[in-house]
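Dear Dr. V.,

Thank you for agreeing to look over these. As mentioned in my earlier message, I'm a first-year student in the group and I'm still getting used to reading structure tokens, so any feedback on how I've presented them would be very welcome. I ran two proteins. I've put each sequence directly above its structure. The first is here:
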Amino acid sequence: DGDRIYQVDNSANLAAFDTSSGSKLWELNIGTIQRASPVLADGKLYVGSVTGRFFILEPSRDGVKILSEVQLGTVAEPEELIGSPAIADGRVYVITDRALYAIGPKVPRVERHPMTPTSPPTSTDPVSHVRVSPTELVVEPGQSVSLRADLFDAQGRLLPQSDVTWELDGLVGQITPNGEFLAEPTAGGQAGSVTATIDNVTGGARLRVIPTLPNAYDFEGDAPGSSPTYWIASTGKFEVRDVDGRRVLVKKSDNPFTRRARVYSGASHLSDYTIEADISAIQSRRQMGDAGVNAQRHTLVLMGNHQRLELQTWQPETVRTHVVPFAWEPDTWYRLKLSVENLDNGRVRARGKVWPRTEVEPDDWTVQMVDVNPHRQGSPGLYANAPFEIFFDNIRVYEN
């Protein structure tokens, strides 16, 4: 703000500093806990604290005037302000953990500034870079996509289109001279790259082929030491291994930095589906890990040390986690089942059950919840917190 800079610390103390000398000009406490940064617009500061207090301030060099102060929610149950306000089209937007507020005129002041179309600079120099687009792709088995190769010189200038050589690396499918890729319908899930080469210069795009629902995975076709190629975040954390005559997926415990991990095996837009998986954990030094399944960003977890079952909608926010006691044994296989269903009025119902794999599935759900501030879509996957190894097998994902 000209010769001043504004800063708010973790304890919600808002201060103004002189940009030349660095000296503090004034300070105002706006709460007890602070996460959001203040926003300056039209000579006013807009800022809120985690305790739900939102301020509109008029700062000056000599001090600050409070133009407006409101308590969002109540003092006992405040609406938490974590993010900074956003300003657009004459309005100030304030988001809390419960609502989005707009401050300003009923009709936004929208100003359009059309850009003058320009053509990118072109060149006839040698090819130095090949850009394949789209660069990241997710497709289904049997789906076809069009890829394009743009050529650039060493200065980043666009070159005229020219024929390139297309190749597949790690993918089963077909690629035409025009860059049309067709994923093999019977190959199931896979991951690899598509490359375009001209004059010994190569560019590429990464591609995942993710099966549609329903699908099942039992790891019998995977090589020991590998992990499913099209899964996200599994490499190095999980590996296929032969255990008691079967191939299963193991969450490794050799790296403390990846002890807790989530992997995703499906598309992120999925909703209204159920995931099932067999899980087992070992015990060492009286410690057991946690194992779970993910569906639509909800997680059903068997907690080893705590001997309980948790249904989590968002792991860091434990107030919405539903917990039931459940005693389970090490070196024993259990079946986990998590079903998530979108309801009316924006609600979501999540239900989970667990039982020993050798027994018949129970009729009743072990734990369930209706979330009024839910996740409406999300990928299926697995969760593990593994101080010692955890095992997964026989994964099924299907529509409700």
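The second protein is here, in the same arrangement:
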Amino acid sequence: MEALVCKKLGDPTALKSSISEADNDSPIILSKTHPIPQLTTRTSVRVRVKATSLNYANYLQILGKYQEKPPLPFIPGSDYSGIVDAVGPGVSLLKVGDRVCSFATLGSFAEFLVAEQDELFKVPDGCDLVAAGALPVAFGTSHVALVHRAQLTSGQVLLVLGAAGGVGLSAVQIGKVCGAVVIAVARGDEKVQFLKSLGVDHVVDSSKESVISSVKDFLKARKLKGVDVLYDPCWRQTY
């Protein structure tokens, strides 16, 4: 099978030409003869990967700066979607041909990946597999933070920084599903218009206006006491 393999630590964005197996300079190579992974337990499932997303953690892992440091060589990649290709004799929740998505610590930058059946989520028929391939990390992070940790409820005010990014966007959508009043902060007209199209209650363009003043004005106009939950995927002093 084809797979992107990290053979040494380094910056994958500094590639000069190719990522072929003959390239000795690149930290990652495209292997076209990597072994197809086999089922390892009675309840394991092999997935033919249809889509996988690139996360910052993947980049850090190839650099060697992520907290989890797998031995070399390794196949990077975390969240993915695909079609069930094979199942172990003890699998009862899935069958060959099912559409699934999941999160892996390694291995999604390949044509096939093996996971346990209870690690996989069925993808509804109306959901595109490319979209599903980007769901687990971003939406999983925001769901844990907002639903489980913050226990966001209907009528509360949610302020999302970096709202047009993957994690920020997932927070906006989960906030709306929870019935919260959502305030989103982003930079630039295109991002602002996109967030407005999602039904965000108030969007702040941080490139043109003061975030603090804009948020205060909105809260005053709506007769709201303040922000109940602040969601900050930027992880730095921003405003």
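From my reading of the second output: The two ends are 48 Å apart (CA to CA). Residues 3-133 form a domain with the Quinone Oxidoreductase; Chain A, domain 1 fold (CATH 3.90.180.10). Does that match how you would interpret it?

Kind regards,
E.
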